[in-house]
Amino acid sequence: MFRALGFKLTGRHRSKAVERWSQGGINLLINSSQDSFARSHYAAHGSGVYAIAFAVDDITTMMARADTLRATTFRQPVGPGEMTIPAMPCKIERVIEWGISVDTNFLKAHAERCRLLAENADEFTKRRLLALAVHYEKRLKAAEPSAATRFLKTPLNTKDATTQV
To answer: Domain residue spans in the chain?
Structure first.
């Protein structure tokens, strides 16, 4: 598929099932490793973008700045001869709000799917899927109207709308 889009296979990881496909300044890393975070993301969500990387001029300064700002940093275990690649995990929430009923259905379905997939997964993926299910359930709980929420009715008589509160 990537070849048809003009990408070329430009590298393979020395010890993991990871390929690099390149086109101009774009590099796509396709991670097919069985014991990776990418695998548990795929199991929960299907095909998609798991991570995005940016080249920076000074990684040491960037990571020091992240520590100063108390950003969470992440370092994945590496094998012999492999590079340590520091990272900062972040969540990208929906850009467009869909409305509470669609969102709660989405969250319920994803939490159920994660729990179902976890039943037959290896321990690593099972832990990740169950943590993801808990995350969706927390978001679902947060999406529910609180006890302090009240719904205002639209005035029936629009000529008096400015005086009704």
So the answer is: 34-146
Across the range 85-112, mean pLDDT stands at: 62
Nearest to 122 by CA among 9, 15, 23, 34: 34
Residue 88 CB coordination number (10 Å): 12
* Confidence at residue 9, expressed as pLDDT on a 0 to 100 scale: 93
**DSSP line for 30-72:** EE--TTSHHHHHHHHH-SS--------S-HHHHHHHHHHTT--
Q: In this structure, is the dihedral angle defined by the CA atoms of residues 93, 96, 99 and 105, taken in order, positive or negative?
A: negative
Of 37, 44, 4, the C-alpha closest to 21 is 4
What is the reported pTM? Answer: 0.49
Token code pair at residue 82? 């492999």
